[in-house]
Amino acid sequence: MADRVRAPRVLCIAGTDPSGGAGLLADVKAVAAMGGYGMGAVTAVTVQNTVGVTGVHAVPPETVIAQLDAVAEDVVIDAVKIGMLGEAGLVEAVGDWLRRRRPPHVVLDPVMVATTGGQLASDDAAHRLRDLVPLADLVTPNVPELAVLCGETSATDIETIVGQAELVHEQTGCAVLATTGDLEDGSAEDVLVETEGGRRTTLRLPFVRVDTPHTHGTGCSLSSALATARVGVPDWEAAYRRVRPWMDGALHGGLALEVGRGSGPLDHTWFLHR
């Protein structure tokens, strides 16, 4: 037991999904799948399933911050993943908490709209998320979220994605992983822009598209897995290369889960079901 590697302790900040595919439940599954110990602060209770979102009930900002402080005062936090915040006041409160606590390896998934189409952030909150990006170490927007962060229209090709990701990195100093599974031109490359040792790099990271309708919680799961994988590796590229094979397996595994009638979840523990 003396040689056992300690599990990364990852605090996830997100809303709930009672069907288990997205939000905080997906976060802790992804953290565990990557060998971490997941913790969670609830930002909102949603009423949703694989078909859609029918209600969002926000947790008061002071209660969210109290949850975060309760963990931080007792547990050494190795990484933080931020997901659904929902309201502008909570975005500001979480920003203040990050400045006060300064946890390592902060990943921001700028959640605005659910895979099933329900709005998960007010317009004001979506706008204020831009101010939160400089406090994170990595931001993981999909195509429409990247457009909001850089103040442009949604990209329709990979070259525009590259330009927008570089712009967000230049404006905020935060590493950017732009995911492109929803890109209209069918490209199969994620785009990572980061600066290490004063040198900026832009990487186009190819992946194999999985033909599946079951993508519920993909963004939540990816960002939580990256936060976990980043502990103990030198950069975000190394974390991504560890996470991507797991994500591909989870997408394939979701085809056999048979959870729900809509856009179903990933199989976070697909490697146990082979």
TrEMBL record:
Q: Which Pfam families match?
A: Phos_pyr_kin (PF08543)
Q: Which parts of the sequence belong to the Pyridoxamine kinase/Phosphomethylpyrimidine kinase domain?
A: 17-266
Coiled-coil region list? none
> Which EC number(s) are documented for this chain?
2.7.1.49, 2.7.4.7
The record ties this protein, via InterPro entries, to:
HMP/HMP-P_kinase_dom, PM/HMP-P_kinase-1, Ribokinase-like
Q: Which UniProt keywords apply?
A: Kinase, Thiamine biosynthesis, Transferase
Q: Which reaction does it catalyse?
A: 4-amino-5-hydroxymethyl-2-methylpyrimidine + ATP = 4-amino-2-methyl-5-(phosphooxymethyl)pyrimidine + ADP + H(+); 4-amino-2-methyl-5-(phosphooxymethyl)pyrimidine + ATP = 4-amino-2-methyl-5-(diphosphooxymethyl)pyrimidine + ADP
Q: What class of enzyme is it?
A: transferase
The protein's annotated pathway: Cofactor biosynthesis; thiamine diphosphate biosynthesis; 4-amino-2-methyl-5-diphosphomethylpyrimidine from 5-amino-1-(5-phospho-D-ribosyl)imidazole: step 3/3
Q: Which GO terms describe its molecular function?
A: hydroxymethylpyrimidine kinase activity; phosphomethylpyrimidine kinase activity
Q: What does this protein do?
A: Catalyzes the phosphorylation of hydroxymethylpyrimidine phosphate (HMP-P) to HMP-PP, and of HMP to HMP-P.
Alphabetical list of NCBIfam families matching this protein = HMP-P_kinase
Protein name in the entry: Bifunctional hydroxymethylpyrimidine kinase/phosphomethylpyrimidine kinase
Protein species of origin = Dietzia cinnamea
Q: What is the lineage of its organism?
A: Bacteria, Bacillati, Actinomycetota, Actinomycetes, Mycobacteriales
Q: Which gene encodes it?
A: thiD
